[in-house]
Each structure stands twice: as structure tokens, then as C-alpha cells.
Specification:
5-stranded mixed barrel; single chain; alpha+beta; 17 helices; 442 residues
Amino acid sequence: MNGTRKLAVAALAAALALTLAGGLFSVARAQEAAKQPYTMAEYNAYQAAVSEKNPAQQIRQLDDFILKYPNSALLVYIYQAYIRNYNSQRTFPKVIDNADKLLALGDKADAAQRYEAAYARAFAFTNMNVTDKDQALKARAAALLGLNTLDQIKKPETLSDDDFNKQVLIPAKVLFNYTAASAAMTAKNYTDAAASYKSTLVLTPNEPVTWFRLGVAYISMAPPQHLDGFWALARSVSLKGPTEAQVRTYLRRQMFNYQQPGCEPQIDAEMAELIALAGSTAERPASYKLPTSAELDAARKEMTIASVITDLKAGGDRGKVTWLASCGLEFPDVPGKLIESAPGADAVTLKIAFVASEEAFDPAKTPDMDVSIKLADQPGAARVEKDNPVRFTATLMSYDPDPSFMLHWGGKATVNAEDIPEEKKAPVKKPVRRPPAKKPTH
């Protein structure tokens, strides 16, 4: 919230300036309000308290005033003094307590005073770790009340319309909306939180932390709004804020849980595409889709290797779903024709043309699959002969799209034992028989 907090600090000063613009409660104003039920002793006690420069001593004088005059017409000014004092000391719970007391006075406080109290309260809330739901709901209500006071604020003559908008209205709207959103998140009112975060982003569209929190709000809804949540999180990553690495990790985990693909690296490709798209526009286009785990499960039910190849070659959305569903699956007895065998020290790589019928066997000349088989697991795989039928069981790992279509297989790959020729036995050498030695003749 770095950007939001900078605006908040600036506008808090502006809030104080608005109420101070007409001067503190003065003798002239006292005379105008002569019919108010307070005495000169009350007024003098008030003036002594608000004029005190030492924070601790001022608090004691304000406390004394409350004890002596609990129903004074000057309470609104006393509460203002409390708020400013505690805010300067960053004693935020006390800021909130006195802001609530001032706001409870309703129309007895003018619009500028209510605005100052609501603003100071919102600023205090954003600097606290509030976990209590009731306190969060009060904070949201006060922030929304603060928003409603803005139309009643009169522009000081010393500010132009543009400066008033930049220095007061925009920072105030940002802080009030952000506070309302954060409070709603604490209260688990995620729909309200998302609405307030979006209102904040209208004014600060490049604030990555706000985009992150909006994404969390969408994903936390019941039911979750996953696509909007992913888009907001990706938008946050694209803005490269100080928490980019953490948001990236969170986005990847959420996408994986949503989709449950067979090959985990697929998430990285999908996430890179999403971040690039979200970086170009804040609004998620209706055309952006991401297959769910249920859609992938449905695709797997009727899946065969022949249908996988057909769908992958066709491409489009169906091809994308098929690949997400099929990658990482083990297929048994995949039929083909061996085009080339490339033996190595530890494994043999078989380059195979997928063949689904006898009619397609002879014309097959180009491999569209390769499978690596470890010789330690199946040394006989190296004996499969070129141009012969071969069936293998392996895990689908990756593929190259057209025009050089190729399925890459791995895992614990094996060739059907029936397709491995028997090992040729070395010819047995017959022993050389020597003629018997002739007996010597005499």
C-alpha cells in the first residue's frame, strides 16, 4: 500500500487544514453561538487544553474537561484535539475511539469536522492489524461515512479546483475506499471488498498491492471468481511491485489448484501468457478462458492416443484442453512402426510413426513420436528392428506442434515384450577332431 499510504499522509494534512482554515474555536464564534449551553469557564478550560503544547499534559487537561463538562457543547472540539494528539503519537486505538465519539455527534459536527474524524480513523485502521470482525465492520461503516462527507466539503478559497481535487478529494477517496475494502476482507465480506478495491483502482490504477488484494478477494468469494482473481493477480505481477515474487508464487499455486494439470510445467506457460495479457489491459476480456480441473477430467474419459493426436493437430481450444488433460498420462501399448533406432550408452531412443491400422502401416515413413527406454530397465528394447511394428507403454511428456509434429514420451517406458525379437545366439564352434596318432612301426 506504499502509494496509497503516501496519498493518505498528504490528505490527512489536508483534512486538518480544512478544519483549521477557519481558525480554532474563537471568541467571535463563541459570541455567535452565545445561546449554546456552555459557560465562559468551559470555554477557558477548552482554550487552555487545546493551547497546551506538551502532548501528555494536553491529554490530562482534555480528560479533566470531559470529567467536568461531560455534556458540553464544546465536545466536538475536544474530540478533535484528542484525535490530533493521539495521531501525532501514533496511538491509533485512541484515535479510533475519539473519532467514533465525534462521529456519533452527527450534525452537531460540521462536514469538515466529520471528514477529519473519518479520515483520521481510516488512517489509524490501515496502520493496525485488526482481526476482530465487529471492529472491521465499524471501520468499513466509518470509511463509507467519510466518503459521503466529501460532497459536503467546501473548497478553501486558497486552493484551485484542480489542487483541491488532487490534494484533498482524490487522496481521501483512495484511503476511504481502501480502508472499506480492507475492513470488508477482515470481516470476510469479499464481494464488498472487491467493489471497494475496484473503486480504489479507478484512482490509482497502477498500485500492485491493491491489484493483489483484489485478486485474493475474488478467489475468496463463494463461489470463487477464479478468472477475475487470476487476472487481478497477474496484473499485480506485471506492475512489478515490491512483492512481485510472492504474488507470482501465490498465483501459480492458485492456478494449479484450479486446473490440476498432469504436467505441472504447463502452468508456467499459461501463467506467462496470462501476465503478458493482464499487463496490456486492466479489464479481463470475456474471451479469456482457462480450463478447469472438471473440464480436464471430462476430456480424459473418452481419450485415446488417436484422439489426442487428432485434437493436437487440429489445435484451437479443443487442442489446448486435450493437451492439458493428456500430458502426464501413461498410455499402454501405443501402436506404431519403428522408423529409426538410436542406441546410446544408457538408453535407446525409438523414433516411431503412429499407426492405427494395417492400411496405414506400409505408407508410414516419417516418425511423429519418440520414446526413450532405459537399457537397465529393458535391454531388449535395442533389438527392435527398423520398419517393424512396435507397441510401447510410456508417459506423454511434451509435444511439438505442426509443421513438425512430434510426441515426446518418457517415464518408465517399455516395449511390449512380444515385439522384441529373440536375442540371436552366437554360433557354437565345433571342436576340431585331430586324427589319432599313428603307432610307430618297426
